[in-house]
Specification:
The relative contact order is 0.20. The chain is built from two helices and five strands. Strand 1 and strand 2 form a beta hairpin.
Length: 119
Amino acid sequence: MDTNRYKYEYRYYNPYGAKFKHSYELVGRLGALNLHISEHSGSLSAGLEFHHTKPIHGKDRPSHQHCWLLGAPCWHDGTSLYAEEYFIPHFDGKNHSILFKLLTQEANKRFYADGGDDD
């Protein structure tokens, strides 16, 4: 984990007793990632959200004026297929550090693809 570049937070929810939801949050200056993994009827599902601090995909207007994760405007994108194929195989409900390691790699690819720094 890169604690100089990102803040990390794990949250566990069990809102209905029979379901659970694990939420992995990674927040940095250039953007944030949120991975959530849930169980429904014995099967796992997942979603990965990307919250950018700068426009993406040619969009001028932000997706959210006040992003719940960044606390500022954000340009938002996400995927469930990639989350399920890439992250669920590493999920055991206990070893959260491996998921944060994978999220850090993903964030570095998305936010620092040019190898640059925080500017």
